[in-house]
Amino acid sequence: MRKTVFFVAAAVFGATALTGPAMAQSTSPSPAPAAAAGKVQLNVNTAINQTLVDKYVRDAPNVALAKCEGPSPAFSSPVLTFANYTPGPFMGAEANISADAELKPGTAAGTYPLTVTCGGQTYTTQFTVPAAQVAKVPSGAAKAGDGSMAG
User: Fold this and answer.
1) CB atoms inside a 10 Å sphere around CB 118
2) Is cis: bond before 21, omega within 30 of 0?
3) Full-prediction pTM beyond 0.85?
4) Can you tell me the distance from the alpha carbon of 149 to that of 102, in angstroms, rounded to the nearest whole number?
5) d(Cα 145, Cα 22) in Å, to the nearest integer?
6) How many whole angstroms separate alpha carbon 77 and alpha carbon 126?
7) How many angstroms separate the CA atoms of 74 and 118, rounded?
8) Where are the alpha helices (DSSP H) in the chain?
9) Beta bridge mates, 62
10) Integer angstrom CA distances of residue 99 from 32, 65, 82, 140
11) Which residues make Cβ contacts (< 8 Å) with residue 68, sequence separation at least 6?
């Protein structure tokens, strides 16, 4: 019985030794990961509201975010002004720079470009601006809590 176990074990180890180098030669090293590309976006994708990315939110703070390498990052858009550039990282967004974004008065609803330039590279995305909501309550409309609905 011992001789059988020994011969089986020797056969298994020998087969492994013979196939091991052949397998090692047939596998190639995995390619190096590509360099991460830059990007730009308006607002952050949050756990609370998944629909904020690349949409301007009226009557709320809006933030332009970018991931880019190089000096002097600058955001630009025909309908936004930018202030308070802040270095990252930022929670919930792959970015290393942000700036407060404010809509220029009189901007119509539509789709507009947002660009960031830094280190000689430029990244662009599109964002949407919703139509403005009615700001004035129609005359004669009932108002909550004013007693006009009491009978």
Assistant:
1) 21
2) no
3) no
4) 39
5) 83
6) 10
7) 7
8) 2-26
9) 101
10) 33, 7, 6, 42
11) 38, 39, 40, 96, 97, 116, 118, 119, 121, 123
Indicate whether 56 pLDDT > 80.
yes
Query: Average pLDDT, stretch 32-60?
Result: 73
User: What's the token pair of residue 66?
Assistant: 């970018």
| Structure tokens, 147 | 């007693």
Q: In sequence order, what are the residues at sequence separation of 6 or more whose Cβ sits closer than 8 angstroms to the Cβ of residue 143?
A: 137
Task: Classify the phi-psi angles of 11: left when phi > 0, otherwise alpha if psi is within -120 to 50, otherwise beta.
Answer: alpha
Model confidence at 5: pLDDT above 90: no
**Using CA atoms, how far apart are residues 91 and 83, in angstroms rounded to an integer?**
20
- Cα 113 to Cα 82: distance, rounded to the nearest angstrom: 14
Sign of dihedral through CA atoms 19, 32, 65, 42? negative
What is the model's pLDDT at position 114?
96
Residues 18-42: b if buried by 16+ CB within 10 A, e if exposed:
eeeeeeeeeeeeeeeeeeeebbbbb
